[in-house]
Amino acid sequence: MGAALGLDELVAWVLEGRDGIVPKASWGETSLFYNPGRVRPNGVYFCTIKEHDGPNDRASQLDREGVLRLAIGIGKPAYEERFGPVPGRPPKGGVVDTGHDFTRLRTVMPHPVYGWMGWVQVLSPTADDLPELAPLIDLAYRRAVERLA
Questions:
Q1: How far apart are CA 17 and CA 7, in angstroms?
Q2: CB under 8 Å to 89, separation ≥6 — which residues?
Q3: What tens digit of pLDDT does each residue of 60-72 get?
Q4: Which distant-in-sequence residues (6+ apart) come within 8 Å of 34 by Cβ?
Q5: Residue 10, number of CB atoms within 10 A of its CB
Q6: Under a CB-based contact definition with an 8 Å cutoff, are residues 107 and 124 in contact?
Q7: pLDDT, tens digit, for every residue of 73-112?
Q8: DSSP string covering 39-108
Protein backbone atom coordinates (compact mmCIF):
# COMPACT_ATOMS: atom_id res chain seq x y z
CA MET A 1 0.00 0.00 0.00
CA GLY A 2 1.36 3.41 -0.98
CA ALA A 3 1.14 6.71 0.80
CA ALA A 4 -2.03 8.78 0.74
CA LEU A 5 -2.20 11.22 -2.13
CA GLY A 6 -2.03 14.92 -1.38
CA LEU A 7 -4.34 17.68 -2.52
CA ASP A 8 -2.30 18.65 -5.58
CA GLU A 9 -1.92 15.02 -6.68
CA LEU A 10 -5.67 14.39 -6.41
CA VAL A 11 -6.57 17.57 -8.28
CA ALA A 12 -4.11 16.68 -11.07
CA TRP A 13 -5.57 13.17 -11.29
CA VAL A 14 -9.15 14.44 -11.57
CA LEU A 15 -8.14 16.98 -14.23
CA GLU A 16 -6.30 14.39 -16.32
CA GLY A 17 -8.23 13.67 -19.52
CA ARG A 18 -11.30 15.67 -18.48
CA ASP A 19 -11.83 19.00 -20.23
CA GLY A 20 -13.52 22.10 -18.89
CA ILE A 21 -12.77 21.62 -15.18
CA VAL A 22 -12.07 24.67 -13.04
CA PRO A 23 -10.65 24.11 -9.53
CA LYS A 24 -11.70 26.67 -6.93
CA ALA A 25 -10.35 26.84 -3.39
CA SER A 26 -12.82 28.16 -0.81
CA TRP A 27 -14.24 27.31 2.61
CA GLY A 28 -11.23 25.13 3.42
CA GLU A 29 -11.66 22.86 0.44
CA THR A 30 -10.96 22.68 -3.26
CA SER A 31 -14.07 22.27 -5.38
CA LEU A 32 -13.85 21.03 -8.95
CA PHE A 33 -16.42 22.57 -11.27
CA TYR A 34 -17.29 21.68 -14.83
CA ASN A 35 -17.30 25.11 -16.45
CA PRO A 36 -15.80 25.10 -19.96
CA GLY A 37 -14.88 28.60 -21.05
CA ARG A 38 -16.03 29.78 -17.62
CA VAL A 39 -19.52 30.31 -19.02
CA ARG A 40 -21.00 30.58 -15.52
CA PRO A 41 -19.67 32.13 -12.31
CA ASN A 42 -18.83 28.64 -11.00
CA GLY A 43 -20.34 25.98 -13.23
CA VAL A 44 -21.47 22.62 -11.89
CA TYR A 45 -19.41 21.12 -9.12
CA PHE A 46 -18.99 17.37 -8.99
CA CYS A 47 -16.02 16.73 -6.74
CA THR A 48 -14.40 18.32 -3.69
CA ILE A 49 -11.25 17.73 -1.73
CA LYS A 50 -11.32 18.86 1.88
CA GLU A 51 -8.41 18.88 4.30
CA HIS A 52 -9.95 20.24 7.51
CA ASP A 53 -13.05 19.86 9.61
CA GLY A 54 -15.66 22.59 9.40
CA PRO A 55 -18.15 23.78 12.00
CA ASN A 56 -20.92 21.56 10.57
CA ASP A 57 -18.73 18.76 9.25
CA ARG A 58 -16.56 16.92 11.77
CA ALA A 59 -17.67 13.32 11.30
CA SER A 60 -14.64 12.30 9.21
CA GLN A 61 -12.15 13.85 11.63
CA LEU A 62 -10.25 15.55 8.81
CA ASP A 63 -8.01 17.37 11.28
CA ARG A 64 -6.02 14.18 11.76
CA GLU A 65 -2.49 14.38 10.38
CA GLY A 66 -2.40 13.57 6.67
CA VAL A 67 -6.15 12.93 6.31
CA LEU A 68 -8.19 14.49 3.53
CA ARG A 69 -11.51 13.68 1.96
CA LEU A 70 -12.25 13.18 -1.70
CA ALA A 71 -16.00 13.69 -2.10
CA ILE A 72 -17.75 12.72 -5.33
CA GLY A 73 -21.28 13.56 -6.43
CA ILE A 74 -22.33 10.31 -8.09
CA GLY A 75 -26.08 11.03 -7.87
CA LYS A 76 -28.89 9.20 -6.15
CA PRO A 77 -29.34 6.32 -8.64
CA ALA A 78 -25.67 5.29 -8.44
CA TYR A 79 -25.66 5.83 -4.69
CA GLU A 80 -28.69 3.55 -4.29
CA GLU A 81 -27.12 0.92 -6.52
CA ARG A 82 -24.07 0.85 -4.28
CA PHE A 83 -25.50 1.48 -0.80
CA GLY A 84 -29.28 1.14 -0.94
CA PRO A 85 -31.76 3.95 -0.30
CA VAL A 86 -30.32 7.41 0.24
CA PRO A 87 -30.52 8.50 3.88
CA GLY A 88 -32.56 11.42 5.07
CA ARG A 89 -31.04 14.88 5.28
CA PRO A 90 -29.29 15.32 8.63
CA PRO A 91 -29.93 18.31 10.87
CA LYS A 92 -27.36 21.13 10.80
CA GLY A 93 -24.17 19.79 12.34
CA GLY A 94 -25.47 16.20 12.12
CA VAL A 95 -24.54 13.26 9.95
CA VAL A 96 -26.51 10.90 7.74
CA ASP A 97 -27.70 7.73 9.42
CA THR A 98 -26.03 4.92 7.49
CA GLY A 99 -24.08 3.00 10.14
CA HIS A 100 -20.73 3.77 8.48
CA ASP A 101 -17.56 4.69 10.34
CA PHE A 102 -16.94 8.01 8.58
CA THR A 103 -13.36 8.11 9.90
CA ARG A 104 -12.27 4.95 8.08
CA LEU A 105 -9.51 5.52 5.54
CA ARG A 106 -9.43 4.33 1.92
CA THR A 107 -13.05 3.13 1.87
CA VAL A 108 -15.75 4.44 -0.44
CA MET A 109 -18.79 5.21 1.69
CA PRO A 110 -21.61 7.74 1.90
CA HIS A 111 -20.59 11.32 2.55
CA PRO A 112 -21.45 12.00 6.20
CA VAL A 113 -23.25 15.27 5.46
CA TYR A 114 -24.25 15.06 1.78
CA GLY A 115 -25.02 11.37 1.39
CA TRP A 116 -28.70 12.35 1.12
CA MET A 117 -27.79 14.16 -2.12
CA GLY A 118 -26.01 11.14 -3.62
CA TRP A 119 -22.47 12.08 -2.61
CA VAL A 120 -19.82 9.59 -1.49
CA GLN A 121 -16.45 10.01 0.16
CA VAL A 122 -13.12 8.30 0.49
CA LEU A 123 -10.56 9.45 3.04
CA SER A 124 -6.89 9.58 2.15
CA PRO A 125 -6.94 7.54 -1.06
CA THR A 126 -3.67 6.17 -2.40
CA ALA A 127 -2.62 5.53 -5.97
CA ASP A 128 -3.77 1.93 -5.44
CA ASP A 129 -7.35 3.21 -4.91
CA LEU A 130 -7.54 5.22 -8.14
CA PRO A 131 -8.78 2.36 -10.37
CA GLU A 132 -11.82 1.96 -8.07
CA LEU A 133 -12.38 5.72 -7.89
CA ALA A 134 -11.99 6.51 -11.60
CA PRO A 135 -15.47 5.23 -12.62
CA LEU A 136 -17.04 7.29 -9.82
CA ILE A 137 -15.21 10.45 -10.92
CA ASP A 138 -16.16 9.73 -14.54
CA LEU A 139 -19.82 9.34 -13.57
CA ALA A 140 -19.83 12.56 -11.54
CA TYR A 141 -18.07 14.40 -14.38
CA ARG A 142 -20.61 13.13 -16.96
CA ARG A 143 -23.45 14.23 -14.68
CA ALA A 144 -21.91 17.71 -14.41
CA VAL A 145 -21.52 17.94 -18.20
CA GLU A 146 -25.19 16.96 -18.66
CA ARG A 147 -26.39 19.37 -15.99
CA LEU A 148 -24.52 22.31 -17.50
CA ALA A 149 -25.94 21.53 -20.94
A1: 18
A2: 96, 116
A3: 999 999 999 999 9
A4: 20, 21, 22, 43, 44, 45, 46, 141, 144, 145, 147, 148
A5: 22
A6: no
A7: 999 999 999 999 999 999 999 999 999 999 999 999 999 9
A8: -SSS-EEEEEEE-S-BTTB-TT-TTSTT--EEEEE--HHHHHHHHSSPPPPPPTT----S---TT-BT--
